[in-house]
Amino acid sequence: MIGITGATGQLGKLVVEHLISKVGKDNIVALVRTPQKAVELGVTTREFNYDKQEEMVKQLKGIDRLLLISANEIGQRVRQHRNVINAAKKAEIKWLVYTSLLHAEITTINLAGEHIETEKLLKASGIDYTILRNGWYTENYTSSIEGALAGGAYIGSAGSGKIASAARTDYAEAAAVVLSDDSYKGKVFELAGDNAYTLSDLAVEISKQTGKYIPYRNLLETEYSKILENLNIPKDLSAAIASWDISASKGDLFDDSKQLSSLIGRPTTSLDESVKLALR
After folding, report:
1. Cα–Cα 20 to 30 A to 222, which of 1, 33, 51, 78?
2. Angle at 190 between CA 53 and CA 43, to 5 degrees
């Protein structure tokens, strides 16, 4: 039996979909805060609260492999992930797969610390593990296309940094592939898209598909952060988004190992296809 944490999240839903095609609905358990929201997944659902360790132990009963999708509460992840790992140990989970961050040990992206600490906890747990170090989702950038069209330019602070992102469904499929094959135990994967691009390249693709000239405007980190804040994005998140672009400018979102496409047995979703999907 395979358990999926955060199964109602954007990544989790896709993992469940890919897993159903591989192992069938009867072999999947969606572990979520609000089971009612997971009904549409068509699999067994159980309430799973990262803050209630003993309850989690009970909910993990009968599950032998677990996908821990990193929690979305930045700053609380290590504590929450520790709770899940401890519960998994008590429940005698045989194998735990964790979604980490691309090049977590060397990246300047400020999200890395919590991922590294979680990886350490996992390695010290005694549970068989696999670590999926996911790169950026292309949707992180294509979600801004509407704003770029309205404003007449695509803005950011990534300079000419190469971004080897992939579609969320690519990473979800990789997780499903790994969970379905015991031979991936003990491995650490650096997962990224096949073909890197710059935000200037993205702007060119948007222009091509819309017939409207959309240039890329590279901004100072503080300027970009302020603009995001003026768009009603919380101040801390605005600063974080701008800082991630600075990390991208340093090459932290680049990887050319093609481990992701190797896992899923096909090329990762192309930039032009991702733009096309965003424009529908």
Report:
1. 78
2. 45
CA 227 to chain centre: 25
Would you list the DSSP string of 91-154?
TT-SEEEEEEETTTTT---TTHHHHHHHHHHHHHS-SEEEEEEE--BTHHHHTTHHHHHHHTSE
With contact defined as beta carbons under 8 Å apart, do 65 and 97 qualify?
Answer: yes
Least confident of 18-22, 38-42, 95-99: 38-42
Mean pLDDT of 122-128: 96
The CB density around residue 236, as the number of other CB atoms within 10 Å, is 12
CA distances from 72 to 11, 47, 69, 80, 234 (A): 11, 17, 9, 10, 16
pLDDT at 65: 97
Sign of the alpha-carbon torsion through 199, 201, 207, 208: negative
Interatomic CA distance for residues 198 and 201, integer angstroms = 5
Average pLDDT over residues 146-167: 97
Q: Which two tokens stand for residue 158?
A: 């990534």
DSSP E strands, 43-89: 44-47, 65-68
Measured distance CA(207)–CA(272) in Å, rounded: 11
Please report the pLDDT score of residue 74 as a whole number.
85
Q: Do 204 and 212 touch, CB atoms closer than 8 A?
A: no
* Ordered domains of the chain (ranges, CATH): 2-134 (3.40.50.720), 135-166+191-256+265-280 (3.90.25.10)
Fill in the amino acid letter for 240.
Answer: A
Say how many C-beta atoms besides its own lie within 10 A of residue 188's C-beta: 16
Q: Quick one: which of 51, 98, 43 has its CA closest to 70?
A: 98
Please give the pLDDT value at position 276.
97
